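Late entry, written up from scratch paper. The run itself happened at the end of the previous shift, but nothing got recorded in the book at the time, so transcribing now.
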Amino acid sequence: MARIAGVDLPREKRVEIGLTYIYGIGRATAKRIVEEAGIAESTRVRDLTDSEVNKLREIIDASVMVEEEVYLLEVKRLRRMQGLEKALVELLQIRRNSLKRRI
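Output as recorded:
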């Protein structure tokens, strides 16, 4: 079984489909990676040689953000958005309070 980016790829799937099991890799990216590695489209994960698996690893490590990197980026983005939301709520409360005082 091929293990890439901390994920065991399913043995019976084509390589292009197997790569999509890695968080951060979709069909288009998987297709580009397989073409760049020079692996035939019909190749199954179980038929990959060690050199092909290593080539896939190198390409993924060099050009694609996967698994933990994507997760950490999303967490940072969500925390930033939550901070912005909190600031917006505070501004709206201040605005509402200032309008009440004018009446």
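The two ends are 72 Å apart (CA to CA).
(Scratch paper discarded after transcription.)
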